[in-house]
Amino acid sequence: MIIAPATDPPVARSMGTSPGSDAAKPALQDSTSHNIPAAPPSLSQKMQVLSENGGNKEGIAFLENLSVPTVILDAPVVTHTMAATLSLSLLGHTLFLKSQVPFPVAQLMRMPGGGSNAKVAKKREELLATFDTLSSHLRTTFVALSTAYAKCKLAKDKAADVPGDENSQKVSRASSSTNGTQRGSAHLMFILGPSVGAARARILLTIDGLEVKVWGERVDMTSHEDADEPGDEDSVDNDGTDEETEDSDDTEDEDSEEDSDETGSEESSEEEGELSESESDSASGPPASRSPSPDPPTRSLAPSPESPLVLLKPLSAFPEHPPNPPAASAPSTATATATPPPTTIRPSGPASRQTSPTPAPAPSYAEEQAALRAAERLLSRTLMTAWADGGGDMASELAPTQTHVYLRAPRRFAHPAWIARQNLSRTLDGVLDAHLLDAGARGSGDAGAKKKARGVKTEGAWIGCKGGSAFAAEQARKASEGTQDQDQKNETRDEEDEEIWWAWDGKIIGFADW
């Protein structure tokens, strides 16, 4: 079931609002506003349902044909925060619709507990504390799951490289770093009952389009290895330049010393000539008077040849080498030669690294919270519409029991709050395959389709995004590869990439008294 914005034509079913009504206009267009709209159609533009003209047409068509309540978010990927928020929202709806709590969980958190008896208050506090713990664990769970899927893809790319071929490895690293955001699909299952075999209800949530990346790793880590060879060449060039600079400095110093010697000899000869002329004049001329008279200047007012200004050359805009002062000033010369030449800015790597796409700026906290609230309201409307139409009614009267949470993830998945339950993989995989077959996600002729699971019917919801269905893309890739080399793939497949089921180490116990 697809929920469409009221301003666009309905995709699957009409929501009962006219396209031209004023109440159907989005009210969260201004993310800086502090007024939170109470009307259900008030959705954020970033989290509106995808229109018919955007995104991957094939992936959107796949999501439209599903027979389970489906929510398509107007976002290229489903972030870990969005996945955790919608998972908790679906769990809260499940607990209330299955009569595990007398009121919705969000309302229980705001209700005072002083008026109830001690036994009921204790059950309420334990349930809320467990729910809060699960809330904090799920946020880091999807981060760890995203990292595990990303490492699985990196392991496959590494295995596909030719051993010893450095060029192919660099090309693969560059292609993996320049590709768009990778997406995957995650399956989360809520089982109400004392155990998996004695389940009274099963709710399966599929998050289609989860953002897949290695969290905690810098983006430019893969490009450091590529910059080793250019860096070596630059160091060699710099060494050669320094040697040439030192040689040229020594040559210029010798030239300046020779010039200063010649200048000194010329000055001494000129001074001797002036003294001889003055002696001849004094011998032939009249005697000097006794009155004091100012001595005529023996030198001109121009700077002396010994001044460093005479030997300085005019500086250009970007001199190749620093100017050399005369040899008379030895300390300044040593300081000038010790100063490194002006450095020029060179690109730190190949041109392909400069053309890498710039990551989009992260949304602010207010925008993120507005998008999360809009997505929660959208999920609530989807479940309400499914209950009204009778296509996905999840309401049923069940006695208070335990609620267990299971996650399907690779073996390399690591989180302290999740315990690997490989012994349940066969049972839960059968439940998953039967649910996907009933939802229309798999055909009856697919290799993964099995007979229907025994016991209660599995209910669920599907979360998608405008980037298309990652689950459908994976199924299409497997179908195109075929099964002719299935044995070879099984031999080369990494054991850490195998997906098993993980159980959350806590459990939620419902109560009905109030």
Order of helices and strands: HEHHHHEEHHHHHEEHEHHEE
CATH class of the domain at 1-22 and 40-162 and 198-216 and 371-479 and 497-514, anyone? Alpha Beta
Strand content: 5-15%
Rg is 40 Å
Mean pLDDT: 70
- Class by alpha and beta content: alpha+beta
Figure out the total of helices. 13
Helical content class: 40-55%
Tell me the total number of β-strands.
Answer: 8
Major sheet summary line = 8 strands, mixed
CATH architecture verdict of the domain at 1-22 and 40-162 and 198-216 and 371-479 and 497-514: 2-Layer Sandwich
Low-confidence runs (pLDDT<50, min 5 residues)? 4-55, 161-179, 222-227, 229-233, 277-286, 328-338, 347-356
Kindly report how far apart the N and C termini lie.
Answer: 35 Å
- The coarse overall form would be globular
CATH topology of the domain at 1-22 and 40-162 and 198-216 and 371-479 and 497-514: Cell Cycle, Spindle Assembly Checkpoint Protein, Chain A
Architecture overview:
With 514 residues, the chain is of the alpha+beta class. The protein has a domain at 1-22 and 40-162 and 198-216 and 371-479 and 497-514: Cell Cycle, Spindle Assembly Checkpoint Protein, Chain A. 43% of the residues lie in helices and 11% in strands. The protein contains 13 helices and eight strands. Helix 2 (80-97) runs antiparallel to helix 4 and helix 2 runs parallel beside helix 10 (365-389). The radius of gyration is 40 Å and the shape is globular. Residues 4-55, 161-179, 222-227, 229-233, 277-286, 328-338 and 347-356 have low confidence and may be disordered.
